[in-house]
Design brief:
- There is one protein chain.
- The protein is an alpha+beta fold and 361 residues long.
- The protein folds into 2 domains: 152 residues; 149 residues, Aminopeptidase.
- It is 34% helix and 28% strand.
- The chain contains 13 helices and 12 strands.
- A 12-stranded mixed beta sheet has the order 1-2-3-4-5-12-6-11-10-9-8-7, with helices on both faces.
- Strand 3 and strand 4 form a beta hairpin.
- It is globular and about 70 Å long.
- The protein starts with a helix and ends in a 13-residue tail after the last strand.
């Protein structure tokens, strides 16, 4: 059976429904745009960069399989009032407010690698501007555990999920977890309050003979090697339109770089030894923010027949808690920490998964 159909059969219930079809994904995208939380924007970016809304790129690598799915968990007190097909009803009537949370699952598989290296990435959005209730959190745990069992008990990859959703996962064993801070600010504040410094006229550019550029395909292997989080080369290649790289003029070597991820989250700031504490990250950061706002504005217009409503785009950036230099760089620009999040790889022991979950916060 097709893996996607198998997952549908295993996960779908009265409260858990798949979001299927371009029109449904567009409708959900507009709702997430209006919800306006950082997790909502992160999932929206994932939708906009996937083939769920946009046509697949002809340059898409045939050696890498990428499959996206969207699931909705309905409020138990409301779902019984829906007659007929729940997924169709919600999408057609824009009743996304009936949901407790949304989950975007992205499955990756590398056909060039003979080992079975399929992985599933999980992104969750609580349908609220506040933290999830205990009841909603319990439902989230049960959904994640069902997904894990379906994956023949392989690890799940959580992309920047808020820590309070991970801290009490029952029976969870974290194979890897990087604690981070999620920073955010309104794009309008950036555009109106901050004037971009000209890097080419700066003292540091003249002193070290540096120039502003972008990450190029030939830089990918070096960037992957140096970054704290080792993103796949294929993934980094897809991020190239929204990257900034400061180079040494004598040999074009990358000195400082920063990327905007496919979901428009800014991250992966790095400066090589010998050039740190020179404010190079500040210049790269300014440049990539403007690229990110421009790219997001173009993509979000796909959600609407006409010009999009005036929702103010939220810039968001994740950095490791231990990366004090990155935090000192971004905070003067007005970005403020809004949540503790983690990059995590997690597995479970089914013997420790209780029927009645006791939550501790």
């Amino acid at each position: 059976m097709n893996q996607a159909l198998l997952r549908f059969a295993a996960l779908e219930s009265a409260q858990v429904i798949p979001v299927v079809g371009c029109n449904a994904h567009l409708s959900l995208g507009r709702y997430l745009h209006g919800l306006g939380t950082v997790p909502a924007y992160r999932m929206l970016g994932g939708l906009l960069s996937s083939s769920l809304i946009t046509k697949p790129s002809p340059k898409h690598s045939k050696s890498t399989y990428v499959h996206n799915e969207v699931w909705v968990h309905l409020n138990s007190s409301l779902c019984n009032s829906i007659k007929g097909n729940r997924s169709t009803y919600i999408a057609q009537h824009n009743k996304w407010d009936l949901a407790d949370f949304f989950v975007l699952l992205t499955t990756y598989r590398d056909f060039e690698n003979k080992t079975d290296n399929e992985k599933v990435e999980v992104r969750a959005v609580i349908n609220s501007t506040r933290y999830a209730s205990l009841k909603t959190t319990k439902s989230f745990y049960q959904f994640i555990f069902a997904l894990w069992k379906l994956q023949t008990k392989k690890p799940l990859y959580f992309k920047c999920t808020e820590d309070y959703l991970l801290d009490s996962l029952p029976g969870a064993e974290f194979l890897k977890r990087i604690y981070c801070l999620n920073y955010s600010m309104q794009a309008s504040k950036w555009l109106y309050d901050y004037k971009m410094d000209n890097f080419s006229e700066s003292g540091v550019a003249h002193e070290f003979d540096l120039y502003m550029d972008e990450i190029k395909p030939e830089d990918i292997e070096f960037v992957q090697k140096m970054n704290v989080i080792r993103y796949d080369k294929a993934y980094l290649s897809k991020c190239l339109p929204a990257t900034t790289c400061i180079r040494r003029a004598s040999d074009s070597a990358p000195i400082t770089w920063i990327i905007a991820h496919l979901d428009y989250e800014i991250g992966a700031v790095f400066t090589v030894d010998g050039y740190k504490s020179r404010n190079l990250g500040k210049y790269a950061f300014q440049d990539v923010i403007n690229k990110t706002i421009s790219e997001f504005t173009k993509k979000v217009s796909l959600l609407y027949d006409g010009p999009p409503p005036d929702h103010d785009y939220k810039l968001h950036m994740v950095t490791e808690m231990s990366n004090h230099s990155a935090r000192r760089m971004i905070e003067p620009f007005g970005l403020r920490p809004v949540a503790n999040v983690s990059w995590a790889i997690c597995t479970f022991d089914p013997q420790e998964y209780p029927n009645s979950i006791n939550l501790t916060f």
